[in-house]
Write a structure and sequence with these properties.
Layout: H1 6-17, E1 20-24, H2 31-46, E2 50-54, E3 72-73, E4 80-87, H3 98-101, E5 104-112, E6 123-126, H4 133-143, H5 150-163, H6 174-185, H7 190-198, H8 203-215, E7 217-219, E8 224-229, H9 231-237, H10 248-252, E9 259-267, E10 270-277, H11 284-290, E11 294-295, E12 299-305, H12 308-326
Parallel strand pairs: 1-2, 1-4, 2-3, 4-5, 5-6, 8-9
Antiparallel strand pairs: 7-8, 9-10, 10-12, 11-12
Helix pairs in contact: 2-4, 2-5, 4-5, 5-6
The structure holds manganese (II) ion.
Manganese (II) ion binds at residues 32, 88, 113, 132-133, 163.
């Protein structure tokens, strides 16, 4: 019998004991969040549980194939649950409107792989060793001896694949490949997932990419690449904000860029930043935390109040400083 961290045993005990569940995730959900939420929802339903699955934002179009039964709903206040589980969510605030809607619960469980996780629940399983929350859900299901159906395998494979940049990021471990292999063995439909997630971008996103290549800027001897996405860029291209996910990779993936940053206008005086680092020596999670955000060493983000120009000046300044002290 393989040994698992104690906290998994505790979580399984709670999952077995209770009847009504709510699975929540972070605002602007990505593949890891959606895949983890859905896999857990399906697994609990298979165990005969009553499960509600909530996210403040809708499932991005490219991930809709994972939820043909429309398990995802908008949070509603006033409902009661035995147990609430948050997946892939680094802080309580990141739950958005799900936060105030899960007040009435007996136990709150937090399963996540962000090192910056604030451990906001009653039971916190935070393991930054894994490249994705999907891998934690996989471990949990194995430890509970729950069947991993092809549908669940699709969800978890998508989670692992998207959070590792298709197994390219340095967070990818031998174990990540083992998990992916097991998921394929259990029926994950690789061709379908790759087609839906990576090869079916709408034209609106292509127009957003055109904007990116026209407008991205370089700084600090081309070691910093950055891009502004204003509200008008979305309306002009017909893209919705979920289509900005992954855009940052296009300015990250060039030589000699070390750090990439996308500034997205949320309100005239509120900017969302996404950061990516290719350098071992620049931890963008530290930079994001200076602005009240967080994330991982190589991928992080924050929401920053202030005028766009002052936000840009402060963030680019912080990146330059980090690059200088790295060299
Ligand atoms: Mn994740």
């Amino acid at each position: 019998m393989k040994s698992y961290p104690q906290v998994i045993g505790r979580i399984i005990q709670e999952l077995r004991a209770y009847k009504t569940f709510c699975v929540v995730g972070h605002v602007r959900p990505d593949g890891d969040c959606i895949g983890s939420q859905l896999a857990l929802t399906c697994a609990l339903k298979n165990e005969g549980k009553n499960v509600t699955c909530w996210n403040e934002d809708s499932v991005p179009d490219k991930l809709a194939f994972l939820d043909p039964d429309h398990f995802f709903q908008k949070p509603k206040r006033g409902l009661e649950f035995d147990c609430v589980i948050a997946t892939d969510c680094a802080s309580f605030e990141r739950l958005g409107k799900c936060g105030p809607a899960i007040e009435n619960r007996k136990v709150f469980i937090n399963i996540d792989h962000h090192a910056s996780n604030t451990r906001y629940a009653d039971i916190n399983w935070v393991s930054a060793r894994e490249a994705s929350t999907g891998e934690l859900i996989f471990k949990l299901m194995k430890a509970a001896s729950w069947p991993i159906t092809p549908k669940i395998a699709d969800c978890l494979f998508t989670a692992v694949s998207t959070d590792t940049g298709s197994f390219q990021y340095a967070t990818t471990k031998p174990m990540t490949y083992n998990t992916a292999g097991e998921l394929v063995k259990r029926g994950a439909d690789l061709a379908k997932i790759c087609d839906e997630v990576y090869q079916s971008y709408p034209m609106s996103r292509v127009r957003l990419l055109k904007h990116l290549y026209n407008k991205f800027r370089l700084a600090h001897e081309d070691q910093i690449a950055y891009l502004w996405l204003k509200k008008k860029d979305f309306s002009r291209t017909g893209a919705d904000t979920s289509e900005s996910e992954g855009l940052i990779d296009h300015i990250r993936d060039m030589e000699p860029v070390e750090v990439a940053c996308v500034f997205e206008e949320i309100e005239p005086d509120m900017t969302r930043i996404s950061l990516r680092s290719k350098s071992d020596k620049v931890n963008v999670s530290h930079i994001a935390s200076m602005f009240g955000g967080g994330g991982h060493k190589a991928a992080a983000g924050a929401r920053i109040p202030g005028s766009p120009l002052s936000v840009q000046r402060r963030v680019i300044g912080a990146i330059k400083k980090a690059l200088n002290s790295a060299s």
